[in-house]
Design brief:
Blueprint lengths: L6 E7 L2 H11 L4 E8 L2 H4 L4 E3 L7 H10 L4 E4 L2 H5 L2 H7 L4 E2 L3 H8 L1 H10 L7 E4 L2 H10 L4 E5 L8 E4 L2 H13 L10 E5 L4 E10 L2 E4 L4 E2 L2 E3 L3 E4 L4 E4 L6 H21 L6 E9 L5 E7 L7 H7 L4 H10 L13 E8 L20 E2 L4 E5 L2 E3 L5 E3 L3 E9 L2 H13 L14 H14 L3
Parallel strand pairs: 1-2, 1-4, 2-3, 4-5
Antiparallel strand pairs: 6-9, 7-8, 7-9, 10-11, 10-16, 12-15, 13-14, 15-18, 16-17, 18-23, 19-20, 20-23, 21-22
The structure holds adenosine monophosphate and glycine.
Length: 445
């Protein structure tokens, strides 16, 4: 018996998240072939996956390609094309594109828009003010309490946020953004907000047609160095689930953050289809407060999340586009998954690139699930790969608990090398401490 015709999928982007998306989409029984634009050396090596030399920002060429090749579903990885309106351009040409339109993507594209949205719809977040004038911003810094958080309004690759312990640090951040224009247009406006105490979690959903399918919880490590110290990066590792998000916290996130956000979008006259990512701070009071919204999957959260996902991602995305998410259920490997990012010398500053990568760079095991996802890699000689940017690979593994998943991921990471490669040694440390505390508490006295 023949099933329904299989579709072709286009994944837009070339990072670790997009390798994971392409790998996962290619496993769907609904999918004949996956194209990745532009992809990386990891997606190039996957079965049923092909890289296409179109830049993720070249919306017209992407839409032309999707039309010509009769792509049945496009999944957009990064935020920039969403904020630039890729979903609107595809919709205008009747092409199925999973991702929010330009208006809705402002939730990520403008922090001041997001903060006003949160305030308007009563969603818990840090109190804030936004400024375009340096003098007014400075006057505010002189009056306020510390630590304070200074954020460039627009997209800055996760690097436009400074947690300032003292007024002087906040002023330096302000000078970099409003004065030296170090973030260009993105820093023309700044948001200054209260510092929130607590532990962070990433909560990502699939949204569409006013309905929502929550994915498993996850947590990433944004700071460059062990002990969550050093400058902020795009993320140095992540794991799923986040033990912090127990059933009660999960319910609070859905009731106080996710559903009000989707209702708020509708009230404001916008449709939200796509991944909706809430970056949350969960304090001692267990109230989830929004640090930021993203309109995409997290990177590197996507790598452990998709390694754990047992259900069909493509089916979920198609259900969202049809407005039929209500009947969808996501299924997960009951075990934990954890990914360690292998970075190039110099990252998060300017990375040294071009070095050949040694080791099992396409390692992929089914049981327990383990996988090296590529991020900034390019094809090298004889089927090898070269370092092509700051975050290069993400060694990802499942294990019975976060500690076991970490052991697997670090075993994988240790086998791969190039000149100057480094990674954090403590990804998952909070979850592991929590696991240990639970074991100790359960032991008879
Ligand atoms: P964002 O891109 O807005 O999520 O900020 C990046 C990182 O800065 C977050 O993941 C937090 O670690 C930190 N951060 C941002 N806003 C706050 C805040 N209001 N209080 C404490 N930490 C923050
Ligand atoms: N890992 C954080 C992000 O993708 O924004």
């Amino acid at each position: 018996m023949r099933g329904p015709a299989k579709i072709k999928v286009l994944v837009v982007g070339g990072g670790g998240r997009e390798h994971a998306l392409a790998w996962k989409a290619a496993q769907s029984p609904r999918v004949a072939r996956v194209y990745v634009a532009p992809g990386n050396a990891g997606s190039a090596a996957e079965e049923r996956v092909e890289n296409i030399a179109i830049d993720a920002g070249d919306i017209d060429s992407l839409a032309d390609f999707a039309e010509r090749r009769e792509i049945g579903l496009t999944i957009v990885g990064p935020e920039a094309p969403l904020v630039a309106g890729i979903a609107d351009a595809f919709a205008a040409r009747k092409l199925a594109c999973f991702g929010p339109g330009r208006d809705a993507a402002r939730l990520e594209g403008s922090k001041s828009f997001a903060k006003e949205f949160l305030r308007r719809h009563g969603i818990p977040t840090a109190a804030h003010r936004s400024f375009t004038e340096a003098a007014a911003a400075r006057a505010h810094l002189a009056e306020r309490a510390y630590p304070a958080v200074v954020k460039a309004d627009g997209l800055a690759g996760g690097k436009g946020v400074v947690v300032a312990a003292r007024r002087r640090d906040a002023e330096d951040a302000l000078d970099a953004m409003l004065g030296e224009k170090r973030f260009g247009e993105a820093g023309r406006r700044v948001v200054i907000e209260d510092f929130l105490e607590g532990e962070e979690a990433s909560f990502i959903c699939i949204a569409g047609g006013g309905e929502v399918l929550p994915l498993a919880s996850s947590q990433d490590h944004k700071a460059a160095h062990d002990g969550d110290t050093g400058p902020n990066t795009g993320g140095m590792g992540a794991y799923s689930p986040a033990p912090l998000v127990d059933a009660a916290v999960h319910a609070r996130i859905m009731d106080a953050v996710i559903r009000p956000a989707l209702r708020g979008m509708e009230r404001d006259g916008m449709q939200y289809t796509g991944f909706l990512y809430a970056g949350l701070m969960i304090g001692e009071d267990r109230v989830p407060r929004v640090l930021e919204f993203n309109c995409r999957l997290g990177d590197p959260e996507a790598q452990p999340l998709l390694l754990r996902m047992r259900s069909d991602l493509v089916a979920h995305c198609q259900a969202a586009l049809r407005g039929e998410l209500g009947a969808e259920r996501a299924q997960w490997d009951a075990r934990a998954a954890l990914g360690v990012v292998l970075a190039a010398d110099g990252y998060p500053g300017e990375a040294r690139t071009g070095m050949p990568i040694d080791g099992p760079l396409h390692a992929s095991e089914a049981e327990p699930p383990r996988k090296v996802f590529h991020a900034a890699t390019a094809a090298g000689e004889n089927g090898g790969a070269l370092v092509a940017g700051g975050r290069v690979l993400c060694a990802t593994a499942c294990g019975d608990d976060v500690r076991a998943a970490a052991r697997g991921a670090y075993q994988l990471a240790a086998q791969i090398d190039w000149r100057g490669r480094w990674y954090r040694g403590d990804i998952g440390h909070r979850a592991i401490a929590r696991e240990e505390a639970a074991v100790t508490a359960a032991q008879p006295a």
